[in-house]
From TrEMBL:
Protein name: Class I SAM-dependent methyltransferase
Entry-linked InterPro entries: Methyltransf_11, SAM-dependent_MTases_sf
SUPFAM superfamilies assigned to the protein according to its UniProt record, in alphabetical order: S-adenosyl-L-methionine-dependent methyltransferases (SSF53335)
Gene Ontology biological process terms in this record: methylation
Span list, region Disordered: 1-22
GO molecular function: S-adenosylmethionine-dependent methyltransferase activity
Pfam families: Methyltransf_11 (PF08241)
Length: 244
């Protein structure tokens, strides 16, 4: 399928942004951004027949896989009224999760220009009081005031990067999180029954998946000066609630 002029412009803008801000992580960031931009635009993915025959692909193409992969961060750190919450890799979460019910202030950040534009166009219409906008930036570059947020969430994307990248994310998060605040994120469980086949699928959808052990994640968290407060297993992802 030919790329539209607007799509090409967005990709070029993203590439320029990342090369000037995140040269060391640029290849990974570009790959992930392009993979999700394509999904948000509902463009077709070219997947070989043998992968299409896999049950995980059939669930994904039917829209049934999302519920199995979603990490319910609110179950271990429910946003409270008037708390300032930052959702990293937010996608279109403000349109999906009950932020209005929680009455907490939503700040979003994503590397998908499609998600950023969509959420900025519709978020304020949904709730102009709570919606504080979405920034186009990677998770390790947080241009906010120190100790600005009560809660920071980051789900669904850590597995697309080397674990060393998460060290940079944790450092950035620590600066903008309040001393009594929590950081909630998920990590892929490589021992999950679904993990290997899902990783194969994601590779053909355009983004490599890194299968890191739970021990490696705990070591990374501890080396960043964070303490695991709570964990919650999921079908594919393990949720971590940490405090610095």
């Amino acid at each position: 399928m030919a790329q539209k002029r607007g799509d090409s412009s967005q990709s070029q803008d993203l590439s320029t942004f990342l090369s000037s801000h995140s040269p060391s992580w640029q290849p990974y960031l570009e790959t992930v951004a392009l993979r999700f931009n394509k999904e948000y635009r509902r463009e077709a993915f070219e997947v070989p027949d043998e992968v299409q025959a896999m049950p995980v692909y059939q669930e994904w193409s039917a829209g049934l896989l999302t519920s199995r992969l979603t990490s319910p961060f609110w179950e271990i750190a429910k946003p409270k009224k008037h708390q300032k919450c930052l959702d990293l890799g937010c996608g279109v979460s403000f349109l999906i999760y009950p932020w209005s019910e929680w009455e907490s202030f939503f700040y979003g950040q994503d590397i998908s220009v499609v998600a950023r534009d969509l959420l900025n166009a519709r978020g304020s219409q949904l709730n102009s009081k709570l919606f504080k906008g979405v920034q186009l930036a990677p998770a390790h570059e947080l241009k906010y005031e120190p100790a600005q947020f009560d809660l920071i969430f980051a789900t669904g994307f850590s597995c697309y990067y080397p674990i060393a990248y998460w060290q940079d994310v944790l450092t950035a998060v620590r600066r903008v999180l309040k001393p009594d605040g929590f950081f909630v994120f998920d990590a892929l469980n490589p021992d999950a029954e679904l993990a290997e086949n899902w990783a194969i699928l994601e590779t053909y959808l355009g983004a490599e998946v890194f299968l890191e052990s739970a021990a490696a994640w705990k070591k990374t968290i501890q080396s960043a000066g964070a303490q695991i407060v709570k964990q919650q297993p999921g079908e594919l992802f393990q949720l971590y609630k940490v405090r610095f």
